[in-house]
């Protein structure tokens, strides 16, 4: 929404509020073994049809064809990529809106709604019959992918990375005969902060120069999962509390100051709240 569709933050928030109930209503409820097994296989925790319909409607609502490609050849457009996982061998895949010197097989065929779907739990098939499942199984925190993409796209340029987390682990621990698989799920979510810590340690110079920022609500959201769309007020309250923390407020201001100074130095312009 932000990058490819050029929607404002307010427009994104409004669209998400309207669409989240339709998209994140689980097919099965409870903790029965079939539901857990399907979730762990990335097999239909949420129905793919509402996600497709909602994404197509959002694309159409801003004046694009429902089958518009993720590809964007406008030279001043924001470059966007999404992470997915190949169903056949579990390897990572990157689907981009921009051309790339590396292997980029989906650049000319992937639609915007398909890009949204390849990051979800429902399998997605393309004409070459490859299947793609939830990118979180390999890139729950895609900061390393963002680093690689930016290094290859702007070699030798100074870069500023902002990483925004989605809160603490969603849902409750799973128990029973599938305990080992449940532990793997918890590890996947915990990995977001571990990945952040590792990346910061590996890129200490970026931290020192104020070019690496991480914002993540780490307390208060442990019982809120994707399907808890009715918890939007709680999410807002906990997030406001996080932003009220003096240390976080100072970090936000430092990030804003760095972005403003960088934009002025590079001759960036803003129009209607959208920065290019």
Task: List the main descriptive attributes of the protein structure presented here.
276 residues; 2 domains; alpha+beta; PNPLA_dom; PNPLA domain-containing protein; calcium-independent phospholipase A2 activity; four-stranded antiparallel sheet
Structure description:
This protein is α+β, with helices and mostly antiparallel strands. It has two domains: 1-139, no CATH class; 140-267. It is built from ten helices and eight strands. It has a four-stranded antiparallel β-sheet. Helix 3 (48-61) runs antiparallel to helix 4 (112-118). The radius of gyration is 19 Å and the shape is globular. 19% of the residues are buried. InterPro entries: Acyl_Trfase/lysoPLipase, PNPLA_dom.
**SS-derived structural category:** alpha+beta
Strand residue content? 5-15%
Overall helicity: 40-55%
**In this structure, how is the largest beta sheet organized?**
4 strands, antiparallel
* C-alpha-based Rg, rounded: 19 Å
Question: Distance between the terminal alpha carbons, to the nearest Å?
Answer: 15 Å
Whole-number count of domains: 2
Keywords: Coiled coil, Hydrolase, Lipid degradation, Lipid metabolism
GO molecular function: calcium-independent phospholipase A2 activity
Coiled coil: 182-209
Protein name: PNPLA domain-containing protein
